[in-house]
Amino acid sequence: VPLFPRAFFWLVSLLLASLIWFISVHLSDREDARLQYGLLIFGAAVSVLLQEAFRFAYFKLLKKADEGLALISEDGRSPISLRQMAYVSGLSFGIISGVFSVINILADSIGPGVVGIHGDSPYYFITSAFLTMALVLLHTFWGVIFFDACERRRYWRLGLVVATHLLTSGLTFLNPWYEASLVPIFIITFLMGLWAFITAGGSFRNILKCLSCK
Amino acid sequence: MITFMNNSDSEEEPCNERTSLMSAESPPVPSYQDGLQASEAGEAQAHRRRAGGGCNPNNPAGGERSDSGVPVRESTSDNEEEELTLKYGAKHVIMLFVPVTLCMIVVVATIKSVRFYTEKNGQLIYTPFSEDTPSVGQRLLNSVLNTLIMISVIVLMTVFLVLLYKYRCYKFIHGWLILSSLMLLFLFTYIYLGEVLKTYNVAMDYPTLFLVIWNFGAVGMICIHWKGPLQLQQAYLIMISALMALVFIKYLPEWSAWVILGAISIYDLMAVLCPKGPLRMLVETAQERNEPIFPALIYSSAMIWTVGMAKPDTASRGPRQQRWDAAEDGRRNHRSPSHADSQPSETSPGPARPITSVEELEEEERGVKLGLGDFIFYSVLVGKAAATASGDWNTTLACFVAILIGLCLTLLLLAVFKKALPALPISITFGLVFYFSTDNLVRPFMDTLASHQLYI
Question: Where are the transmembrane segments (chain A) (predicted)?
């Protein structure tokens, strides 16, 4: 189960992005709040781009390993299909990303405290939960679409994945105006889900067949 | 390698246990061994899986030996062998992930909930220099000195162990090991249980406590040193590794702990790979004699072959071994049903076959062996990250992933090189790198993002 190498790649990308952000913060003026906020946006954008770059690197690595396995296997085909690898890769990316985002919030939610006592939104926890869920699903879908696009060399799809990732991350900047951020993000999640489903070969007929078999 | 010191003093001088990573090998393929780490108290931790009847399988010299002893199967399909190795490799990776993860979970859960293990109540006698000095340079110097003392103690113990093993002082080794596991199983468990009960404010009377601890300890001794169900033995080994790691986390001062971790991995690398390294000599001596080593300090992921495990009784195992050698191929085939086509390539003698079927029932599946010391140090790393990092869970998670990836890579190298490899260096390096970078770089980034509720 190649779950962990993926998480490792995500961690490395996060590390590099934080390094860049850290350096930029230290080189700049600490007092200027607007500048800090701008740097944060810059850091987030860099992180998104690095994540996608590492996803691509992981794809290349998997291709090589897949070819190697196919060479030495008995019937010339690899034991795991590329679709499965795409799914697992996207899922593990999503899991590690979601866990990193939410685990501190979870740990804090056990302790004594009042949400939003300083004037922030009182819905912090529940919206964090929904956002994390959307993010995990999105990463899974992006993984499937990304691998398929790389496999078939349809690079405009790649660009679209990166663009939606940036868009999603940018939408979270609109928090705590939750109507503007949560709703579009869920719409994007749903659309991505449909796209990934179609990319993976599913169709309406498949769904009917699956339901009727039961 | 840390050895068990049977000091009857207070818990400030705990026994250290370290074992190395050894993999069980399948004789036909040159052994799959993981690094051997210092065996602790005398016992040759390298519980090598010779179980296979001491087939002289494995081990660094395994390649040559198996050629001479067993009909060579490498002549037939290299590809099949490679694929088998990879398949075994993937399975072994998973078989090792679970216990390492469990051990870490136990340690982290304890650290986070029981306050006792994060309080500073003195130091080990092996790390005499205190870290309470005001200046950074002095603190660094003290931690380096602590590390030097600790490592030299470990080296001494390892060399002592190797000498004991070389001169066949088995009773001494056996006694030493029994005493150290006695102490772990009874004393440390008692303290641990006491602290956990204190944390959750649960009242327990002494008779119940003694009954529980007596049962736990007695069953543990039997399971580890004699025979027992595999899962129970694995569970006990995980528990004593976790207990040992907790003791380290409590009693090693901060900076010393990090420097010690780094130094231990360097030492491990040298001890296993250098030709005159103590661990390597231990492995080779054990291989030459075709003896099973004392079991207690190696975690084996496969079924333990319980016959002849407790006594290094070479005489009684002599005839068995020969049969095993011949039946090796048969066994191997038995284990890999997908490679039935390689059966004709086996040239094991015909009459050996009927014996093979009986032997096969007793034989344990080839698995990977990991020394307990590896468990302990991985858990020390993750536990220290959980205890001292201000980034809390992110840092702990990052270290956890880093260690597992290191383990993966080590197993991959094992599959490629097919000899005993040290399990510590890669994982500990990754773990240390990730700990420091996550704590200092990623944490402020993620905290700032989280405070604005931004997701990346």
Answer: 7-23, 35-54, 85-103, 123-146, 158-178, 184-204
